[in-house]
Amino acid sequence: MKFVLAVFGVLITAVLLLAGFGIAAVFDSAPAIAERPPLTAADLEAVRGLLRQVDPRNKVAGSLTELTLREADIEQSLNYGLDRFRLGSARFDIANGATAFQFSVPLALAWFTPYLNADVTLMQQGGGLRVQHMRVGSIDLPPSVGDRILSAVHADLQQRLPDYAAVIAAVDHFDIGNDELTLGYRWQPQLFDQLSARGRELLLSPDLQERLQAHARRLAQLSRNPLLPARTSLTSLLAPMLQFASERGGDAREENRAALQVLALYIMNVDQRLLLGDDPDGRPQRHQLQLAGRRDYAQHFLLSAALAVSTDAALTQQMGLLKELQDAEAGGSGFSFTDLAVDRAGARFGELAVASASEAQRVQQALAADTAAEALLLPDLRNLPEFMPAAEFEQRFTAVGSPAWNAVADDIEQRLKALPLFSVPE
């Protein structure tokens, strides 16, 4: 009996050792892909360009459309999605009819964080794809095994995800070239609606969808007020929206965040149905919102506030700076430090609106108590250089970060700190 137990013990130990070696071979202690730098304003501008390229609104149902994607666009989109769900990083390369996809996924455990590192190279073969190379951790898998894995995953996705099956059915052809992928597909409006709904489910939790929809309905009610002028101060909607945020109770920071995001969609005339679905009670009437009598100030302020509550202050400043540098180019309105000051005011307002529960409530109360709320939001803009073409900007300030530039930037910060609402320590 002892001999039998000993044999079983040896066998179990061997199995555990083999399993341990297998796990060790699959998982690594460090990611194969170095940590990527934070998303920049230029990255967002590239994403905007890609979205303009694939804009479906002018396409005819059933029409054959060709879309060409650069490897940088695909890699950026992959990493944006992975960042969104904290799933690691990816690298994507296209060359000579093959695509190489590499990814690193962290698996947080109680005592350490192993990484699943893998890379797959797919070769175009006729109208399909074949695995040329597959590696998981330190294990190289034969291409035939990779093909079976790819086929099994493809079949499982088609069975479990109707959206995936519909997208595959819409693809007419594809071609893997050098540095780019050309995709031909037949446009179906119902597919767009289907994918939009799926996107909302992935990007927005049910609680967040409900919160944004509630704020969208409240904004629609306010905008339908017959006494509201066609041109009106931003505060005529901002103040009651934050009051609504206060009345809803719950987390004041999250309510403020939703209010600012919905207002930003409104001022940029973005169709809210793309994000929140088609809700007749959430369709607002259009009004031109202004700050200090200027529409662009209201846009700068609200967009910066919405970016600040959605990302971070550094990205908000980069976005504002990118816009001003573009305006300085030929055909633009010129570089304006006044716009940058309004950007900073909006960003600072957004930061305070979600900084803490007490700060969020303080912002709500400040706008509710002050009927002339514009004075709370905008710093003194007098004598700030504006409308400068590129040549004048370079002559006076040389470049961003120069001593002359920093002097004006510091002046703007002091003007912001002079506002009671913004005077709290950062």
Sum this structure up briefly.
The protein has about 425 residues and is α+β, with helices and mostly antiparallel strands. The protein has 17 helices and 11 strands.
User: Given the helix and strand composition, which structural class is it?
Assistant: alpha+beta
Task: Give helix and strand order, one letter per element, not per position.
Answer: HEHEHEEEEEHHEEHHEHHHEHHHHHHH
Biggest sheet architecture: 6 strands, antiparallel
Summed over residues and divided by their number, the pLDDT gives a mean of 76
Termini gap:
73 Å
Can you put this structure into words, describing what you see?
By secondary structure, the chain is an alpha+beta fold. It folds into two domains: 32-195, no CATH class; 204-422, no CATH class. It is 55% helix and 16% strand. It is built from 17 helices and eleven strands. It has helices at 2-26, 41-54, 71-84, 143-160, 162-170, 189-203, 206-223, 235-247, 252-267, 273-276, 295-310, 313-327, 337-353, 357-369, 374-377, 390-397, 403-417; strands at residues 27-28, 64-70, 89-95, 98-106, 115-125, 128-136, 139-141, 171-176, 180-186, 231-233, 288-290. Strands 1, 3, 4, 5, 6 and 7 form a six-stranded antiparallel sheet that branches. A hairpin with a 2-residue loop joins β5 (115-125) and β6 (128-136). α8 packs antiparallel against α9 (252-267). The longest helix has 25 residues, at 2-26. It is globular, with a radius of gyration of 27 Å. The model is unreliable at 1-22, 199-203, 312-325 and 327-331 (pLDDT under 50).
